[in-house]
């Protein structure tokens, strides 16, 4: 990855499907990440949506891959991800990519 690419906004997004009877727990765990993650350096957007079919959709935009990597290494995120695994039905469907449209300055 070139130095320029490292400093372009990146997005991470995907769907998480709760196990039967785990939707409330999964929702609470994911909601517990929203405000702390929004406060991390480089967070441009961090949103949690609940779909009509019960899946959760997480959408994140970070100033750079480096900022996302720092976020991913935080103790809160690591601990929450470890707890989330017990409440998922299958593997999360996730996508990562470089943002090609300009992100307005905050």
UniProtKB/TrEMBL annotation:
GO terms for molecular function: monooxygenase activity. Gene3D superfamilies: 3.30.70.100. Residues 10-96 form the ABM domain. Keywords: Monooxygenase, Oxidoreductase. The keyword Oxidoreductase applies. Pfam families: ABM. This is Quinol monooxygenase YgiN. The lineage of its organism: Bacteria, Bacillati, Actinomycetota, Actinomycetes, Streptosporangiales.
């Amino acid at each position: 990855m070139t130095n320029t690419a490292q400093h372009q906004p990146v997005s991470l997004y995907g769907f998480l499907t709760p196990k039967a009877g785990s939707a409330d727990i999964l929702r609470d765990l994911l909601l517990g990440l929203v405000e702390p993650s929004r406060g991390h350096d480089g967070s441009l957007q961090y949103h949690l949506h609940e779909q009509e079919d019960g899946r959760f959709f997480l959408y994140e935009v970070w100033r750079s891959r480096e900022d996302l990597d720092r976020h991913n290494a935080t103790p809160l995120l690591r601990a929450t991800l470890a707890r989330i695994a017990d409440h998922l039905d299958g593997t999360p469907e996730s996508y990562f990519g470089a943002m090609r449209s300009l992100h307005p300055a905050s």
